[in-house]
Amino acid sequence: MKVFGKLYYVLLAVIFLGLFFILENAAIVSVIYPFSFAMLFALVWANQKWYIVCPMHFAAAVIVDHSLAGIISALVVNVCLIVPYLAHYFSKKNMKCWEMALFAVLSQIGKIGFAAASGGNGLYFALASALIGGVLTLGFIKLFEAIFVRGFAYHLSATELIAGGILLVGIASGLTPLGIGNFSFLKLIASFLLLAITYCTKNYYSVFVAAIFGLGSLLHGLNPVYFAPILLWSLAISPFKSYRKYFSAVALVLSELLIGFYFKLYYSFTWISILPTIISAAVFVVIPDKLYASVKSIFDLKSDRAAIKNVVNQNRETLHRRLLTLSDVFGEMNTVFRGLVKNNLSEEEVRKLLRDEIISRNCESCPNRARCHRTRQADTLKVLDEVVAIAFEKGKVTLLDMPTYLSSNCERLNGIIASVATLTRQYKSYSNMLSNIDMSKLLIADQLKGISSVMKSLSKDVDTEIAFDGKREQKIVDELMFNDIVCIDAVVYEKNTHAIEVVLVVRSADAEQIKIPNIVGKICKCKMTACDKFASSKPGYVTMVLKTSPKFDCALAIASATKSGSNMSGDAHSAMRLDGDRFMFALCDGMGSGTNAEKTSETAMSLIENFYKAGFDSDIVLSSVNKLLTLQKEERFSALDVCVLDLKSGLGDFIKMGSPCSFVLSKNQCSKVDSGALPLGIVDSVSPVTKKKVIDEGDLILMFTDGISDAFATDGDIEDFIKESYSLNPQNVADKLLQQALSNSNGKAMDDMTVLAIKVFNN
Questions:
Q1: Across residues 622-638, what is the average pLDDT?
Q2: DSSP tag of 287
Q3: pTM to 2 decimal places
Q4: Quick check: helix, strand or coil at residue 19?
Q5: Are 758 and 662 in contact (CB under 8 A)?
Q6: Between these two residues, 747 and 683, which has the higher pLDDT value?
Q7: What order do you get walking across the sheet with 638-646 strand by strand?
Q8: What is the pLDDT of residues 198-228, one digit of tens each?
Q9: Topology given in CATH for the domain delimited by 552-762
Q10: Cα(608)–Cα(639) distance, rounded to whole angstroms?
Q11: Which residue has the higher pLDDT, 739 or 620?
């Protein structure tokens, strides 16, 4: 591995030496040389090792110009790069790209000085080289940062493509004067590149590259001699891409023969002049197809995205069917569990059974049985029914509860009293057990029904086919790159005409930039919000999910006080974003104050939060929580106040169980949401008070526990105070309402007090 690493760096050094040598010869109209030093500074910026690239640049510069002025100028360039770079490195201060470009301009001070000393127009050319090189440094930084940081596998932005084109222009310009007699290195390199690019990519890519190489040759000395031939090569070899690769090689050589001998586009053309194209054609044919396949995989990396998107939609359809089937299964299980519920006997039937059991235990062996149950049967049964009724009402019977008829005629009165007490107690215990079993079955049935409903809802969500937008995807990547945010992939899809979601894979260092939603929103023509972020499969990158922002957003303010003398509040609150751009706000007031009340309210609130997170409907949530609280051995009640706000439509669902009224305050009016229903945990079935209300921009929703409402004489007093306390800041309103409630109670909190103030604003 160590030997391989050394060979890699040796090969890298040779490549850099060759590139710098070519670019040292690259010129604009043979007098302006901005390419070589611009590439040097850009490479160091892109984390290429300075102790490799700097010596290679110096060596190439000296080879091209080994005069004293050339050596000193090359040395100045390297010093102006190494010194600032090391200074920033050891001070652990990041260098900005514009600073690197500035140092690149300053690195030409040596050439400028020698040009000034020589006189003539050389000074102007040196200044032009410095300024143009500074601009090229910025472009090359973008290009090399994309190549060495992201790799070749990802699409280049427009800026990076322009910078790459300029670099190719420079390489073509540098190759133009290089050759041995009529053997041109420009023709050698250009012809091979055109063959390889045509074979591995789309045809028009080779035409672009041919035009760039021709432009570079033209730019070097304003000589168009190579411009037309290189373009004709690309046109000649393009039709043979689909055939065997040697057809393209033969087409290249034949086109060169026609250009040289028949059309005579060159100033001079001999058999040596055709050697570059013959050599490049031969090398192109000899290189194994496996190597070209590797190059193709780079350019075709994203060509399968259409297939991937089709697979996504196909998987969504499969998931839709499976979820729908599972929904039906859980729906059937809900029906089965509800059928297992065994309702208790009616009270009349139970009384008859208890009466018969009392007779069986006490009257079977009594010597007066015939008198009581034959002669006076109607009176006896009536009296025993009265005794059982008293036992049901009081839970027990005593001698004082016995009717006169029974106490004066029955010899086994004490036995009857004992039997009534025992049977009543046993029945109540049995009845409670049956009731709990039935309630547990109903609770399970509710959960099965809720799961069925959630799965059916999920199946609807994935039922619609996703429409992907490839044009916007590329625009987003390009725009983010332009803003120095490295994005290696983007997926844009529309759920419907009003909902767009964008998934980005960005560099971890860029994930926190607040301008990402603004850039994406500008391209998607709607406001976007970052809603999720998680690690990407590619190390060093993060996957971000953005979606269309809802019409509204909200801000929450809380004000609370614990009951005087209590160490813990029995009030609990929750504010939670739900799926579908909904927000849930909830207040739960446990019975009393202190630890037990706090535990009750926290339990109820935790259950409510988890049920809503899972996507259960409000009816199932409240029914399930109520049953769970009812099943507890201790009687624990909780007043509940819930508001579920749809941020897209502005529709608010208010759900109340034993909680005070709520208010919706706007600049013009104040409307009340009435209270009602019993708290959670009192009775088996729930009948919450529900109300829908349209919430608009600037509205303020106020929810509070009974510690606040009891401090005011009437709801009208609360409404009047709220109107007077209107403020754009919800925290001010919440604080004022709490302080007024405390003031009404002489500064003493008679109960736990909590206020939630929700400000709704346009997003």
A1: 59
A2: S
A3: 0.55
A4: helix
A5: no
A6: 747
A7: 571-578, 582-590, 638-646, 651-657, 689-694
A8: 888 777 788 899 999 999 999 998 888 899 9
A9: Phosphatase 2c; domain 1 (3.60.40)
A10: 13
A11: 739
